[in-house]
Specification:
With 171 residues, the protein is an alpha+beta fold. Helix content is 22%, strand content 35%. It is built from 4 helices and 10 strands, in the order ααβββαββββββαβ.
Length: 171
Amino acid sequence: MPKTLWNRAASLALLIAAVGCSPLAAGSTSAQQAATATPSAQLAVHPVSGLTVVPLTVTTASGPHVFKVEVASTPGEQERGLMFRSVMGADEGMIFPMDPPRRTAFWMKNTVIPLDIIFIGADHKVLNVAANAVPYDLSPLPSDGDAAGVLELIGGRAAQIGLKPGDTVSW
């Protein structure tokens, strides 16, 4: 066997052995999970913010309303929020988890679009809604109690779905 062909065959054998010993080896639990994973099982990422996108359901008297929301979980992500964004869909939003729950206030500094700011208690019930918050306004919009989360939707959307204090939000 020529030396070049021998080197290629030896390299291929080493590669097969290395793959066979890796965590994703055929027959391993990880390989089976990777093989059966579907694209929908992968976390969605927002193309502008890079934040994880999760489904969120608001249940009002008119029934459940499903949104795809970006999760702003770190202090930096929460500080930036939806600043400088010029568009957002009717079924999109951003959720700000608060752990531990606390009294909070939001403002509209550098926020271009009007927003509905929904404060959510630890029981996942809506505490209060700051409807149609005015772009660029620096007035604090406070929660009516300890908030475990704050949901931002496009301005006017809360009224469209009949959202009011006491309604349930799950994410």
